[in-house]
Amino acid sequence: MAGYRGRFAPSPTGPLHAGSLVAALASWLDARAHGGQWLVRIEDVDGPRCPPGTDEVILGQLAALGLLPDEPPVWQSRRDDRYQAALDRLIASGRAYGCACTRAEIAAAAGPRPRHGELVYPGTCRNGTNGRPIRAWRFRAEGRIAWQDRRLGPQSQDLATEVGDFVLKRADGLWAYQLAVVVDDAEQGITDVVRGEDLADNTPRQIALQRALGLPTPRYLHTPLVLAADGHKLSKQNGAAALDLDHPVARLQEAAGRLGLTPQASASTTREALAAILLQWTALTALR
């Protein structure tokens, strides 16, 4: 695939675990199978949740696994000017507006929240804040967004009824993930986003922002989730253990198995052995 550019974009709230390695390996293999480039972006836009030094830990883990990016990593925390410029464009076009609501006010106006569902913003400040100070900035969500996921197939979501006007810049002054990722993917020329299935629900919001900003929409592929013993997604929030990289080949074997790839036997843990195994999986991925 000519011009393929993929990326792995971890949030440095903790070291990589088994679930995040599956996403990293899947995105790396997809890029290599299509003869493309693979980038790493550190999504540390939510600074208070990112312990100092965790970004370097993650980069070290990727290097130990032989997953090396083709360009220097990018840090979201260093890109405020890009996000502000995008927000300014959305405000100027009428697609973003200031919101004065508190969390409690939104919850009271939105009514009961369905189990595991979205708290849909009721549009209280769509026509102004009645003189109240602006706390956050929101995107006007309109219409149904449909897209084709490379693994999940046809997908769609009605933004207005299922999500509502979502936040672009938070009340604490931090940038929301949705805006940052859209700006970054466009600036880095990302053609294919390969990430965990838990992020599929974010895709229509990102497509809506891409369209509003006149940016290209990448192809999307959402990988199977790795579940903890209790059946919930394996994550840092539920205590997922950091990868044991004393045996990097074993960790790659486990991640590849989650992706339906045949384990490649190797008694060696040298960088050359890692490269050989990754090359074999790349060939298998190219046939899928």
From TrEMBL:
PANTHER family given in the database record: GLUTAMATE--TRNA LIGASE, GLUTAMYL-Q TRNA(ASP) SYNTHETASE
| Family of this protein | Belongs to the class-I aminoacyl-tRNA synthetase family. GluQ subfamily.
What is the name attached to this protein's record? Glutamyl-Q tRNA(Asp) synthetase
Cofactor descriptive note: Binds 1 zinc ion per subunit.
One MF term in GO for this entry? ligase activity
CC cofactor: Zn(2+)
> Where is the motif named 'KMSKS' region mapped on this chain?
233-237
Stretches assigned to the Glutamyl/glutaminyl-tRNA synthetase class Ib catalytic domain: 5-266
Q: Which organism is it from?
A: Pelomonas aquatica
- InterPro entries in the cross-refs: Glu-Q_tRNA(Asp)_Synthase, Glu/Gln-tRNA-synth, Glu/Gln-tRNA-synth_Ib_cat-dom, GluQ/Sye, Rossmann-like_a/b/a_fold
Q: Where is this motif: 'HIGH' region?
A: 10-20
What are the record keywords, sorted? Answer: Aminoacyl-tRNA synthetase, ATP-binding, Ligase, Metal-binding, Nucleotide-binding, Protein biosynthesis, Zinc
